[in-house]
Design a protein that fits this description.
172 residues, alpha/beta, Rossmann fold, 40% helix
């Protein structure tokens, strides 16, 4: 199983070594391919020493979003059958979240994934969504099925994404 958590830990060492962590035998080409697949290659190449840049303990030289992208590259490179994403986009900015969402199909292809998320935009394309509230399973279905039921998922989704009835958006 591979995990991508909301607060990714990177160890002191190069970017490449941190990506390679889940598959120590990976070649440099495989490391770079994983980084490209999740949208991390561009910023890595712009760093002082590229893939050889030391990220320091905890990845302190990187933003939260960049640490997450390295974590996604690590999970992709490990190529494990089960992937757990636990609030993996919670601490990233909107731009990074969109980049991650764009690469999710690559990361999830051929894998069983458990995606735990409060940001519903992360799970709208899931095969099955399970709504859990106070430890109880409340609803289960696809995004469209749950919206059509107009239950708890619908309430959460509309709160997050839709304008309340009768409220005009402010345009500057």
């Amino acid at each position: 199983m591979a995990y991508v958590l909301q607060d990714t830990f990177l160890f002191s060492g190069s970017v490449a070594d941190n990506i390679r962590y889940g598959k120590p035998s990976a070649t440099d080409e495989q490391v770079m391919a994983a980084a490209k697949a999740v949208g991390a290659d561009e910023f890595i190449r712009q760093m002082k020493d590229g893939y050889a840049t030391d990220v320091e303990e905890g990845g302190v030289v990187l933003s939260t979003g960049r640490r997450q992208l390295i974590s996604f590259a690590r999970a992709l490179l490990a190529d494990l059958r089960i992937l757990i994403l636990d609030e993996a986009t919670l601490l990233v900015d909107t731009q990074t979240e969109k980049r991650i969402q764009a690469t999710m199909s690559v990361l999830l292809k051929g894998r069983t994934a458990f995606v735990i998320a409060h940001r519903l935009s992360t799970i709208t394309k899931a095969d099955q969504i399970v709504v859990v509230e106070d430890g109880e399973l409340v609803e289960r279905g696809t995004h469209q099925e749950l919206l059509s039921k107009r239950g708890r998922y619908y309430d959460l989704y509309t709160m997050a994404f839709m304008e309340p009835a009768g409220v005009e958006p402010i345009v500057l």
